[in-house]
Amino acid sequence: MAPMGDNVVVSNIELEKLLSMKGGKGESSYANNSQAQAMHAKSMLHLLKETLDRVQLHGCSDDNEIPFVVVDLGCSCGNNTINVVDVIIKHIIKRYEALGFNPPEFSAFFSDLPSNDFNTLFQLLPPHLSNDNGGVSMEECLAANNHRSYFAAGVPGSFYRRLFPARSVDVFHSAFSLHWLSQVPECVVEKRSSAYNKGRVFIHGANESTANAYKKQFQRDLAGFLSARCVEMKRGGSMFLVCLGRTSVDPTDQGGAGLLFGTHFQDAWDDLVHEGLISSSKRDSFNIPVYAPSLQDFKEVVEENGSFVINKIEVFKGGSPLVVNKPDDAIEVGKAFANSCKSVSGVLVDAFIGDKLSEELFLRVQKRATAHAKVLLHQLQFFHIVASLSFPQSQ
């Protein structure tokens, strides 16, 4: 059988326009496969609130007309971003009230790449409960869980570049996004390069040159992210970042990300090659643009960039990304693994080999994961780097 799907190519230029979590509300959508992220975020709330306590409250007076601005970078299209913005704003309101001041109005900007399913996100947003002209108090606003006490807007674009006016944002929040690179390093798919990732679709278990290319791309991207936020954040602002991380010093050991993209997912691609559905060169030109940094990788970039000081940074055990009702049911575990994988990489795979072959690929991922269900539940553990950043005191 002749190889299929070789006519679809995704260039790095197109990646920014294309990359997104699986939209909609279907079985493999991000909205229905982000419960683990929700649990991980909940377990980190105390660290988020510590960061929020550092934020300088502006306009503490009765005629405060400057809105307090909160931004979630890499918001995706599920409830998680709405929940965390709600937590941030309610915490800041309590700080104002503890000082005896009326809180200002709040603006929340949800930002992601243009391909993000903003429609699904906006449909999930509760209606705005205004305290203007309707005699609604802020207390009633807070008590109304099915409403929101902020003005919402979407901002499309890469967070590796400028997105907001200078000195306009009080709080930046970004969770489970910074491990996504702006591009696959070109040398990784260049056949003549020592970093050519032959036979693989991810850097887990790759050679040192490949891993270093990914590491350098991550460093460039994070430096660009910090430089942009340095201009956009207000002087008394703070930033809370959560990034998929690893505990190994070796960048070719990507930990949980390696098990998600470097085992059954990798084997499923090999199945397509062996069955003649795609060519080996087609497989080799696909790479997942993810890099899970070590704590040292992350710190080095922040310190070298010099725009921010690290108030707190740690590796946080996030647990398994698989949420299953019946852990002993291998079929359910296999399906959960395939859906989890598809929700974050399915859009890229669809664009690269087409919908039909993509469906075949994820069926094989599910079959392999089902056969290794017990091992997966035990071994698939994610670690996250959690960082609280603000400007140096002298600035």
Automatic annotation (TrEMBL):
Keywords: Magnesium, Metal-binding, Methyltransferase, Transferase. GO terms for molecular function: metal ion binding; methyltransferase activity. Pfam families: Methyltransf_7. Signal peptide: none annotated. The keyword Methyltransferase applies. Transmembrane segments: none annotated. The keyword Nucleotidyltransferase does not apply. One of its GO terms (biological process) is methylation. InterPro entries: MeTrfase_7, MeTrfase_capping, SAM-dependent_MTases_sf. This is Indole-3-acetate O-methyltransferase.
